[in-house]
Amino acid sequence: MLDLDKLFTNYTIPEFNENLVTWFNREKRDLPWRHNKNPYRVWVSEVMLQQTRVDTVIPYFNRFMERFPTMESLAEAEPEDVVKYWEGLGYYSRVRNLHQAVREVVAVYDGIVPEEKERFEKLKGVGPYTTGAVLSIAYNQPEPAVDGNVMRVMSRQFGIYDDIALPKTRKLFERVVRRLMDPSHASDFNEGVMELGATVCTPKNPMCSLCPVQEHCYAYTHNVQEELPVKTKKGASRIEMYDALYCRRDGKTAYVKRPDAGLLAGMWQYPLTERGTGEQVNGTYVGQVKHVFSHIVWYLDLYVVETLPEGDWVWLDGEERAKLTVSVAQQKLEQMAGVDDETVRRNDDV
DNA sequence: AACCCGGGGGC
DNA sequence: GCCCCAGGGTT
Predict the structure, then answer these.
(1) Does residue A258 fall inside a structural domain?
(2) Distance of CA A80 to the CA centre of its chain
(3) Domain named HhH-GPD: which ranges (predicted)?
């Protein structure tokens, strides 16, 4: 185990805190969830920000908070309505877990986000990072909130070469943060480190000349910014190929609902058949959609067909379709089908 | 510990 | 193309 006493030898902890917090309060970006820090808003923002960039989250956060301004309003809503406000944001289990957790807070904790760590961390979708982030930012509790930014900043600051892809490494950085953080400025410390990682101590080409904690930084001193943090590569994605069937009847289009568990759980799409396993598709080829997930690559060949194989598809008009939640892959197919419809209509006109 | 789970942006 | 992103759940 890494010896923290050795790590902090000749290291001035108060100076790090002073420089970081002063910098953060001068340079912090104007973000919607910083306008007021009620625990519910902080919580929603932290869930949306999981593996998702700030610029992507901002419009989703604003729409979500406008529609569900309080935990009570969210608790009362139907799951299908809530998921619709997450459409396109990805990792949809986040919103289902958040919805369930907020319902629990309203029912069990009288609508107050629990300040007790042992209670908050047990809520659905709340892991070690979100626990520390909400308790420190909303309640100023001295809890570590170790995300990718924190591991990058701290690995460089102290020259820690542990592989950040390993689960146990996060715990190491939690020990580092507990040792380093000034407990009376927990909120500014955690937000400050993350802000630093997002804007200055970036993965590529960090702007060390702008860094408030450059002086004692191991990576800067030894000029090894590019080799930290250490992270092992993940394996190659698997490739999946499907035929997507676009079938119209009486002004309606066939859709199926994906299974309630697994990839894109419960979301709606055109009927898909795995290529090569079924019979040859009897239809008109339109084109191919490529869609990249974090661990899978989809190639979807779109066909216009007159008849469908057996399945639980339903017929939807435009108004009905608009209420349902679909993946971005499905949006690409609809775009392609729509373009094809336009082509057909134009040719009919001629 | 390893794998699953979206989508987008930077280089 | 590859990497990363204010990660968590399941096995």
Answers:
(1) yes
(2) 19
(3) 48-199
Please give the protein residue whose CA is closest to the C1' of the nucleotide C7.
Answer: A50
Residues A205 and A321 reside in one and the same domain: no
Q: Which residues of chain A fall short of a pLDDT of 50?
A: 348-350
Asked whether residue A142 falls in the same domain as residue A264, the answer is no
Whole-number pLDDT of residue A345: 56
The domain boundary, picked from A227, A252, A272, lies at A227
With respect to residue A233, please indicate whether it lies within any of the assigned structural domains: no
**Residue whose tokens read 């930012």:** A137
Contacts of A82 (CB under 8 A, 6+ apart): A68, A74, A95, A96, A99
Domain final residue pick, A189, A206, A227 = A227
Strand partners of residue A274: A242
Nearest nucleotide to A203 (CA to C1') is: C4
Q: How far apart are CA A349 and CA A12, in angstroms?
A: 77
Structural domain harbouring A324: 238-349
Is there a contact between A229 and A164 (Cβ–Cβ < 8 Å)?
Answer: yes
Catalytic sites of A, residue numbers: 46
pLDDT value of residue A350: 38
User: What residues contact A76, with CB distance under 8 A and at least 6 apart?
Assistant: none
The CA-atom distances, in angstroms, between A345 and each of A130, A232, A275, A348 are: 51, 52, 29, 5
> Is residue A221 located within the same domain as residue A312?
no
**Please, which positions of strand C sit below 7 A from a protein CB?**
2-9
Helices (H), A109-166: 117-120, 128-139, 148-158
Nucleotides of B under 7 A from a protein CB: 1-11
Report how many domains make up chain A: 2
